[in-house]
């Protein structure tokens, strides 16, 4: 019993005593009635104590609230409700307590179990916005706001606006969220009106921790494609890497945006000007329902009572991200710099064009192969002719091997002399193939990151963005997996057949000849767990290559090539060595001399 309860009890007993002495005039009650009266007094006593306790407790809470929040104490009272900002693409649920984002649903997409795709939810994602004040740090999550939803029709489209307002006689705090129909960018404005001398800082301290949920079937592939990305105001793209270990970074330079990037989706925060004092981290938990845990802490400029920034909640479509802000398209991995140009400037636009006319992505992949092969057919033709020339001069090369086989340096010198006389280049067949390699490697990056293929079926593949599980194995094969991907198997078989066919056109022998058979088998192990769309592309590409070479063969006569070679031999019989050839021979001689020493 505390002091207030004891005082109340003493006063109540004194009132009963005075009343019984001066005002009670009736006869003495019988024992039964005395018991009833005693019971009534006893029952009234706790009720009075409870009223006193509640009153005093409420007074103490109000006192504590005022000591913590000062003139903002009234904002810390209220009842939590929900408010929704919604378009055809996004549904964002807010709490009126702090105007906090509780949940973000991407309405156009489903997770791999066909449930609504929640990019964020209140259990896995927490954000906080803190301001410095004369009473200390103020977390907006402690304040209650009144929501107001508005819709505005403009020339650029429909804009949805959700305004949260919290105010007292001393001032007003507003948080305004705007979302344009057809977009995934949520603009936020934070305003403080009046409250003179209450808020003392010149920045908002924002923190965000997100346990990225697994939206795809293949957790391993999702983790390979999920990381914290950020872009410096100076124009440099950076990331925390793909390691499963804890990765942290304290960024000294101003930052333009931060992205919690998943395989097919990104949740990001974008500065109107810049973010400072940025600290980032990511780690991989043991929980298989979580891809990665990502966090960011940063300072947002707060000047003249106002601050603004944006959120992006949406798919990783290259052209969509490119329109958000500078460098934001880097959240889609298009590959290394020497192949990324193929994806950025050719494949992305080709995909977008074909999507307008075809809804089946298997057909689109076939058409992309056809268009690329057709565009590269001049290089394919030159490569075939180069290999054909090497094939028709094989007797001369074999003769040199018999004559100089024991002297590699002399052999190389005589070979170069022969090539010069016959007008044949040993790299004429390889160089056109080398020029086609960026397209081959570009697809290795494009298909695993192409959201267009997500949950799109073709033939037996239910989802072209992940592996086609044609046969599920009762055991796991090291470096291969516990399933058989039929598209990968078809790609491997077609590549082996192509290698066999190609070996008939070249002069490759020994280890180089066998290497062509080993590589497809190696890729079978590597690509077995890669997207079915990638394996299907390589399979179709091999089939088209067969057709191209068969067609070229119909128009290429080895006898005519041999005749051309003989003409070059006569023409170049007295031809002087080129400067390059002379330097190369001198270098070979010097190397041989050093070897003998």
From TrEMBL:
The keyword Cell membrane applies. It is a multi-pass membrane protein. It comes from the Bacteria. It is found in: Cell inner membrane; Cell membrane. It holds the Pfam family 60KD_IMP. InterPro entries: Membr_insert_YidC, Membr_insert_YidC_N, YidC/ALB3/OXA1/COX18, YidC/Oxa/ALB_C, YidC_ALB_C, YidC_periplasmic_sf. Residues 361-553 form the Membrane insertase YidC/Oxa/ALB C-terminal domain. Keywords: Cell membrane, Chaperone, Membrane, Protein transport, Transmembrane, Transmembrane helix, Transport. CDD domains: 5TM_YidC_Alb3, EcYidC-like_peri. The chain crosses the membrane at residues 7-26, 361-381, 418-451, 471-493, 514-530. Residues 85-347 form the Membrane insertase YidC N-terminal domain. Belongs to the OXA1/ALB3/YidC family. Type 1 subfamily. Required for the insertion and/or proper folding and/or complex formation of integral membrane proteins into the membrane. Involved in integration of membrane proteins that insert both dependently and independently of the Sec translocase complex, as well as at least some lipoproteins. Aids folding of multispanning membrane proteins. Interacts with the Sec translocase complex via SecD. Specifically interacts with transmembrane segments of nascent integral membrane proteins during membrane integration. This is Membrane protein insertase YidC. It comes from Algoriphagus taiwanensis. The lineage of its organism: Bacteria, Pseudomonadati, Bacteroidota, Cytophagia, Cytophagales. The gene is yidC.
